[in-house]
Write a structure and sequence with these properties.
Chain lengths: 353, 290
């Protein structure tokens, strides 16, 4: 009897711990009326905004999160069509998803708040005419330095490879970002496809191995704030938040030209709650929503009406509002062919082995 | 003819009724998914990383790449160390539970079980806070003037092993406990009467009699270790990946499902080999609780 009990307890624990391993925190995903299933980046959309939308419209929002574009793509493909109504792909991923016929066209007549978005952020090369996407927030993958620990002056991505930073970096757990950063540090494009150049990139990337203490895309600020890592390669708003917690932490925009990104609202093909999704996207374009977002996750805000309302707290903070020359000299990722991507993937595996 | 037909009914029908639901469950929950994984491992991917049913052996050829073999070896090392530490810690503790009379026994027993009612992710994150540069342990060490600069505990192979030991300890304690519980007190007395010292009694009587528990505990600890990717993610910081991380990456950011399936097959093969070894050295499948 006792043995049976032990067996049962053990099986229960085994299954429980296996389930715990499944990272993505997906909640229910049923598609009845009055519901909306959104799939967004971690640490990117505040709960308060979802709550406000729920109380204004009565539509229940189910939130799931991901930590890289590739994770999102894999998850959307693996689930039944229409499991998620709304996704939040970055620039190059929008292009790729359009090419794979994974996105639904947006009903432009419903986007009454689109005028709030600055014209420089509209009509991007990855989605001309904003047929499938509208911008949410953007930013830079920049360098964070804890100046009380790191004495060396950091001015660019290349400095992150310096041996003096051994075992002290937190970097994004995102292969396009880290390899892109490595490419920029060598004066190459983040979208390099030339095989001989990529072999050199791979060598350079291996020099980063000893410096990386932690790979974390979800919340790289935590390791910076706790002091576990003294420098890092992270999203600009993560650095902005770390700076608020610890004034010794500074943001450095790389002199080589930075990694830029712009994330967008899109509706997946076969979405079960299309109307609610359109309502939500228009709600997010509202100036007040954008301000609520910016307060918690201070990325580059394309909502000019919200920027005007936020004033100098936003505009004068270099981490929240990257200077215009950083944006001008930066580069966006592009969708690459699968042969090149598998070279990138190999490099990444070699780095992380 | 008629008689045998009747017999068929009387013997087979009850058997069929009782076995069929289990068989159907096994078919749909174990066999079909397994076949799916095997088929997937021979598929190719197209330019957008979608799975296409074009036969290829490339996924299996990729398994032999040096970058992956390094991770297999690292996984085996982590799993081996975890198992050894689990035995060293769990054996005395199980002995304590089994040999304690009175109510204390239940308290000890509950001490093992109750922490496992909390989600393991949360407990693993707890370790991360505890061991951090400005965590409790480092603060305590500095307070006691044992160190000046913070000690680097986190994000290496050692912390991964620590997390694994912590997560999997009950799977070692419970089988050990059952086997020690069954130990006949008379045998120990007989051993003492025949002049054996305590060490000799332990080596020649207790250890052989409880070896079944050690073996089954080891299997229960070693195998999950190869797949517990979240432990090496959170405590290893991505610097001490196990096979589970490799598989997870193929299904998520790597977006190469067929290769992920081939890796899963490798994991299944390793598991089967280990269980086979376990049977060879005389372990019973009952003791595994499967």
């Amino acid at each position: 009897m006792k043995k049976k009990l032990i067996c049962m307890v053990m099986t229960m624990m085994l299954t429980a711990s296996m389930l715990a391993g499944c990272g993505a925190s997906s909640k229910t995903a049923s598609g009845s009326a009055g519901q909306l299933n959104v799939f967004v980046w971690t640490e990117y959309v505040p709960d308060s905004v979802f709550k406000k939308f729920e109380s204004e419209t009565g539509i229940k929002v189910n939130v799931s999160t991901y930590s890289s574009n590739e994770d999102m793509l894999a998850k959307v493909k693996s689930e039944a069509a229409g499991t998620y109504d709304i996704v939040q792909p970055s620039d190059y991923m929008v292009k790729s998803m359009i090419a794979q016929n994974m996105l639904e066209k947006l009903d432009q007549t419903k986007l009454t708040n689109l005028g709030n978005i600055g014209s420089q952020y509209l009509n991007a090369s990855y989605d001309p005419g904003n047929v499938y996407s509208v911008p949410y927030q953007g930013g830079v993958a920049a360098i964070a330095v804890n100046t009380s620990v790191v004495k060396k002056e950091i001015t660019g991505y290349a400095d992150l490879f310096d041996p003096s930073l051994k075992n002290s970096l937190v970097v994004l757990d995102d292969y396009r970002a880290v390899i892109g950063m490595t490419e920029r540090s060598m004066g190459l494009s983040m979208n390099e496809t030339d095989k001989t150049k990529l072999a050199k990139v791979s060598d350079q990337l291996m020099k980063l191995k000893d410096n990386v203490k932690l790979y974390d895309s979800d919340s790289p600020k935590s390791a910076l704030i706790s002091g576990d890592c003294s420098a890092g390669f992270a999203w600009s708003a993560e650095i902005a938040l770390a700076m608020e917690e610890n004034p010794d932490i500074k943001i450095v925009y790389p002199k080589e030209g930075a990694y830029l990104f712009m994330d967008n609202w899109c509706i997946t093909k076969g979405a079960k709650n299309y109307d609610a999704a359109m309502q939500f996207i228009n709600f997010m374009l509202d100036s007040e929503s954008a301000q609520m977002v910016s307060k918690e996750f201070p990325y580059l805000c394309p909502n000019t009406k919200a920027v005007a309302a936020m004033g100098s707290d936003y505009t004068d903070n270099p981490a929240k509002n990257p200077p215009a020359d950083v944006i001008a000299s930066g580069e966006y990722l592009e969708d690459l062919d699968s042969d090149t991507l598998s070279i990138y993937n190999d490099m990444w595996n070699k780095l992380k082995q | 003819m008629k008689h045998s037909g009747h017999e068929w009914k009387s013997n087979t029908l009850p058997a069929f009724v009782t076995v069929a639901p289990v068989a159907v469950c096994m078919l749909f929950l174990v066999i079909v998914p397994l076949i799916y994984v095997v088929i997937m491992s021979f598929c190719s991917i197209d330019e957008y990383y979608n799975v296409v049913f074009r036969f290829t052996l490339k996924n299996y050829a990729m398994l032999a790449d040096a970058q992956y073999t390094h991770i297999y070896l690292q996984s085996l090392l982590i799993a081996f160390l975890t198992t050894v530490f689990c035995i060293l810690i769990a054996y005395p503790f199980s002995f304590l539970i089994a040999r304690t009379k009175s109510r204390k026994k239940n308290i000890y027993y509950m001490m093992v079980i109750i922490p496992f009612w909390t989600n393991s992710l949360i407990r693993i994150y707890g370790w991360r806070t505890f061991l951090g540069t400005n965590g409790w342990l480092n603060n305590a060490l500095r307070f006691l003037h044992l160190t000046d600069a913070p000690v680097n505990f986190l994000f290496n192979r050692g912390t991964t092993v620590l997390g694994m030991v912590y997560c999997l300890m009950p799977f070692m304690i419970l089988p050990l406990y059952t086997s020690i519980e069954k130990l006949d007190q008379n045998l120990l007395e007989a051993s003492a009467d025949l002049g054996a010292r305590r060490g000799a009694t332990f080596l020649h009587v207790i250890l052989p009699l409880t070896s079944g528990g050690i073996f089954s505990g080891s299997i229960m600890v070693f195998i999950p270790c190869l797949g517990y990717f979240f432990v090496s993610d959170i405590l290893g910081g991505g610097n001490s990946d196990v096979i589970g991380n490799l598989i997870e990456r193929q299904f998520q950011s790597g977006n190469n499902w067929p290769f992920g399936a081939a890796l899963s097959i490798i994991l299944i093969v390793i598991t089967l080999l280990l269980v086979k070894c376990y049977q060879k050295i005389g372990g019973s499948m009952d003791a595994l609780g499967v």
